[in-house]
Design brief:
α4 crosses α6. By secondary structure, this protein is mostly helical. The protein contains 22 helices and no strands. This is ER-bound oxygenase mpaB/mpaB'/Rubber oxygenase catalytic domain-containing protein. InterPro entries: Lcp-like, MPAB/Lcp_cat_dom. It comes from Chryseobacterium populi.
Length: 395
């Protein structure tokens, strides 16, 4: 199959890159966007993590699910050696992920983690109201979510899982071999493989030519650019500044997470310039929001109403209103209209106040204190989410 940048002439593509957030990303990063490298990347639309897929076939498809999970957990926590009598695919995966790549820089990982932590609630606003909901505008990217019936599972559970993954991969030493973030990366990699193989087996209408392979490497790259480039852009919009080391650190951190997840190294950007150039090419194969996108976006918006963390209905309605304000502030108006985000009165009030408070807070409070406070906030929000999703009502 030969892929072309089929939407490069479309209104949604041009608006984004010539007038919207895409234009801001180019200015923010100094990127030089063109289609000269398109062929280099296009093949990854039909490329998947075969190592992960083999592990699922050799471990999960042969045993009961809980037995297979226990076996994998044992490998994650205790490690695997050349002489172990275990399935070849598992040996290959763990020998590869237990060996730290030559390019890995521990100082940069630390800076990346610190930026995530010190961003506090802004980090969570960015992930939810820019990265996640903005991603729903790319119709083909969402097809695996629809195929695996993520909508039935509900946004509370999905948000809880994303938060759990993000918090646990962005703390100090989280990605050391056998540590919590490392464990999350390996498990997420195998969940992707499991989902991909299940889609290929059970979902008859999968349109490989247009949608690519389910959870393909190129889509994975775009998702991880969401956690680095888009995340940084969002923090900046909310009035945060970051040092050169922190900026390099965030790309380095997600490059390493991507490596553990089996994303090919040539797809993992080192800096914002590369990330914007890579992202530009990928967006040219994605159509704008469709019906599924709107359903996913509304499921996320209404999560605040369904979520029992806040006790009273008026609190939940207010939280939903604040998220809608942030979504309009962070995303292009065209994207919000396509996703049918409700228009609300005085929608710039909260984000602009937040921006002003951030500028003052970041001037007056030491970096160390901000890291500690932000980390505490993240752990508190995560604890609340895990408490309610452990309830059987949220399956």
């Amino acid at each position: 199959m030969v892929l072309h940048p089929r939407f490069k002439g479309s209104t949604h593509f041009k608006d984004f890159w010539e007038k919207g957030n895409g234009k801001q990303l180019i200015e923010f990063s100094g990127a030089e966007v063109s289609f000269k490298d398109f062929e280099k990347f296009a093949d990854y639309y039909y490329h998947v993590d075969e190592t992960g897929d083999e592990v699922v076939k050799e471990v999960y498809f042969i045993k009961k699910f809980h037995e297979a999970s226990k076996e994998i957990e044992n490998y994650i926590r205790n490690g695997v050696s050349e002489n172990d009598d275990i399935p070849e695919s598992a040996k290959k995966l763990f020998l590869q992920t237990q060996r730290k790549p030559d390019w890995l820089n521990e100082d940069l990982l630390k800076y990346g983690a610190e930026l995530c932590m010190r961003s506090g609630l802004d980090a969570l606003i960015s992930l939810r109201d820019y990265c996640l909901i903005g991603g729903y505008d790319y119709a083909y990217l969402n097809k695996p979510l629809i195929a695996t019936e993520a909508l039935k599972k509900g946004a509370v559970k999905r948000l809880s899982e994303t938060l759990d993954f993000w918090v646990n991969t962005t703390r100090y030493h989280a990605l050391d071999i056998h540590a919590k973030g490392y464990e999350f990366a390996i498990k997420t990699r195998l969940i992707h493989s499991y989902a991909r193989l299940s889609i290929k087996k059970h979902y008859q209408n999968w349109d490989t030519e247009n949608w690519g392979e389910p959870i393909n490497s190129w889509d994975m790259m775009a998702t991880y650019i969401g956690f680095s480039l888009v995340f940084l852009h969002s923090l900046q919009k909310l009035g945060n500044t970051f040092s050169v080391e922190e900026e390099q650190g965030i790309f380095h951190l997600w490059k390493y997470v991507g490596h553990l997840l089996g994303i090919p190294g040539s797809l993992l950007p080192d800096n914002k310039k590369q990330a914007t150039e890579y992202f530009y090419l990928w967006t040219s194969v994605q159509p704008p929001s469709d019906r599924d996108s709107v359903l996913l976006a509304h499921s996320l918006l209404n999560e605040s109403l369904e979520n029992p963390i806040l006790k009273f209905q008026f609190q939940r309605k207010n939280l939903r209103y604040l998220h809608i304000c942030c979504t309009w502030f962070l995303l292009d108006a065209e994207v919000c209209k396509r996703l049918q985000i409700p228009d609300v009165p005085n929608r710039n009030g909260f984000p602009k106040t937040k921006r002003l408070i951030n500028i003052i807070y970041n001037t007056l409070v030491s970096r160390k204190a901000r890291i500690e406070a932000g980390n505490k906030r993240h752990l508190k929000v995560l604890k609340d989410y895990l408490r309610i999703t452990k309830n059987s009502n949220f399956h």
